[in-house]
Design a protein that fits this description.
CATH superfamily of the largest domain: Tetrapyrrole methylase, C-terminal domain
Number of strands: 10
Radius of gyration: 19 Å
Number of domains: 2
Strand order of the largest sheet: 3-2-4-1-5
Strand content: 15-25%
Helix content: 25-40%
Length: 238
């Protein structure tokens, strides 16, 4: 049988491809990755109704610690793992495919739209001018994210900062406050109150919002609920 790794797109049912819907219908068990990205209420409701009895909510432990059991299940019956965005953006899922190949278990990848491409498209920035992407955790140390922004800016490159989606998600104001704390600690002059940045909220969803302003103004702006992201522009092409 086959292991299907299926990208769900930007978290809304509107961005789930026909290919994805068709492939997973034939699977005996469907695991939904609930920790690497955002899943909207409408998509969750549709999946629950459409695949009642087949759908399993998968935690990090399920997909990492119980990897062997899931792969052997795929060998016997055929399963799908549904992932918000594109399934191979997160390293967890690359590890799945590596292990499947070692065990000679066939797999098939169904790609989905990712915030990586959507953030570039909606801002009009050029894709090849982006440097290393980073993630800012809700309860993590912001200094590593700050250093990555610094490295990219020194090369004239933009930085996409993905914000934590766990436990309600990290907001744009919350993320900027954390980065200002890192500025106070490291003092490289990278993220100041007058630094230009782009706030991205719920991209691809009905409440989508893009705001370009200095940090001080972005912190006071009102936003729809997460998922949120930030872009720190490098050298602009216009």
């Amino acid at each position: 049988m086959v292991l299907y790794l299926v990208g769900l797109g930007l978290g809304s049912i509107d961005y789930m491809s026909l290919k994805a819907a068709e492939e997973i219908k034939n699977c005996y068990t469907i695991y939904l990755d609930t920790y690497t990205g955002f899943i909207s209420k409408d998509l969750m409701n549709w999946l629950t109704k459409e695949f009642y009895g087949k759908l399993r909510l998968a935690t990090r432990r399920d997909l990492e610690d119980n990897l062997g059991r899931i792969l052997e299940e795929a060998r016997e019956t055929g399963i799908a793992i549904l992932v918000p965005g594109d399934p191979l953006i997160a390293t967890t899922h690359i590890s799945l495919l590596v292990e499947a190949a070692k065990r000679k278990i066939p797999y098939k990848i169904i790609h989905g739209i990712s915030i990586y491409s959507a953030a570039v498209s909606i801002t009009g920035l050029q894709a090849y001018k982006f440097g290393r992407t980073t993630t800012l955790a809700r309860f993590g140390d912001p200094r590593e994210t700050y250093r990555i922004i610094k490295e990219n800016l020194e090369r004239g490159l933009h930085t996409l900062v993905l914000l934590d989606t766990a436990d309600g998600g990290l907001t744009i104001p919350g993320a900027l406050r954390k980065l200002l704390e890192a500025e106070d600690s490291l003092r490289y002059g990278i993220v100041r109150e007058d630094t230009l940045a782009i706030g991205l909220a719920r991209i691809g969803l009905q409440e989508e919002l893009v705001k370009v302003a200095i940090v001080r103004e972005l912190i006071t702006e009102s936003y729809p609920p997460p998922p949120h992201a930030l872009i720190f522009p490098g050298e602009l092409h216009f």
